[in-house]
Amino acid sequence: MSLNNNKGIFKFITKNMMVKIPKGEINELKIELCDLNFERSKKVNIVLLVISLFLVPLDIINKQKGLWMPGTKYLFCTHILMVLVPLILLLYLYKHKNINTDVKSKQFFIMFFAYFLFLDSTVTSIIDQLIHGEISVFVIGAFLIAVMTNFRPLTSMGLYFINYLVFIIGTINEQFP
């Protein structure tokens, strides 16, 4: 097959995938994506708060039973953060009810929550790696962010790159202090 024929096949395959959005509708699409990301972020925030409210008492019970091993107190700190930050975000949403009309506030909420969620997942996974040798929370956090949000490619790359870098640097150390 010649190179020109390959370009024709590529053009045929991608022909239906390339859609030009009229300039007047681009802003409307951005607002619609922001609204979708915002609603999903609020729901995930509530779910994570409920899950974390079960993990913190479980950590306290394990400490009372003497089941804390090195590193478990750091895991407890990530669980506490996963209660405090979503709770603060819910209180912020309750206090600022006009956020439903302010696109910049929604974008801030979405980005703050996405970075916090993925960073907390990364730190939890680093601790789990050092305790059990597992990184499942990092993978779950990455998957959750991918499903929860529709970011532009550059925004997604920044989010994933920063957390991947933190993860790699964190797993280089083999012991807890």
Keywords:
mainly alpha, flat, 177 residues
* Strand-residue proportion: under 5%
In N-to-C order, the SSE pattern is: HHHHHH
| Overall number of strands | 0
As residue ranges, the low-confidence spans are none
Query: What's the rounded overall pLDDT mean?
Result: 82
Helix/strand class:
mainly alpha
Radius of gyration: 21 Å
Q: Describe the global form.
A: flat
Secondary structure: helix percent: over 70%
The tally of helices reads 6
Largest sheet: none
Q: Distance between the terminal alpha carbons, to the nearest Å?
A: 61 Å
Describe the structure.
The chain has 177 residues and is mostly helical. Helices cover 79% and strands 0% of the residues. The chain is built from six helices and no strands. Helix 2 (23-64) packs across helix 3 (72-95), helix 2 runs parallel beside helix 4 (103-131) and helix 3 (72-95) runs antiparallel to helix 4 (103-131). It starts with a helix and ends in a 5-residue tail after the last helix. The mean pLDDT is 82.
Short structural description:
This protein is 79% helix and 0% strand.
Layout of helices and strands:
Blueprint: H1 3-14, H2 23-64, H3 72-95, H4 103-131, H5 136-148, H6 153-172
Helix pairs in contact: 2-3, 2-4, 3-4, 4-5, 4-6
